[in-house]
Amino acid sequence: MTAPKFLTSERTQALDAQHQPEQIAMGKYFIPGGLGHAESEEIAARVLMCCREEGKFVAPSYRTITRKIAQEFEEQVAVMEARSAHFEAIDRINQQQSIRGRIAKNLPTLAKILGIPAFEAVQIPELPDEQQTVSRHVFSPIIVSLTFGGRNILPYELKLMIDKGYLIETVVGEDVYYEPTAALISKLLQEQEKRIARS
Fold it and tell me: What's the CA gap between 193 and 185, in Å, rounded?
């Protein structure tokens, strides 16, 4: 039997009685200036996006959070590799044309006698359709950290959020869930009010 993606508890139900997940202004995986730390804001946004999808406050499982991050990470790596292959092929064609041009210009007689060298045809791979990837238009500090070798970034940031009282870790069997707290919602709403007052 697979574990549920989300958990509801008395605490999440108490949050539902006072607030709605839609009250918090956020983009996909960011809450502008909400917590003063990009990775914490991303985790809060990921948890709250799950709440929005469910239409109530829930505690997403660690597995749910990491699967989504892994999917987006793999998509971004695939897009980067495809873009790299595309531009490397264009570079090879440009180099070949440059060599042909230099031979024709600097050694015209030799080029006529020997012919200009033929190069292997280079196929230019298509650029990926980034509109089709789930991660399009997403800047994720966590994925950026993963890209550059920060493999422990998520556990570290989750612990930081727990230590600050923004999340509660709940273990059910072998699964771990992260409940948003009243302190998190209160902090985000306060920061949101400050942003509105400044604008």
Answer: 12
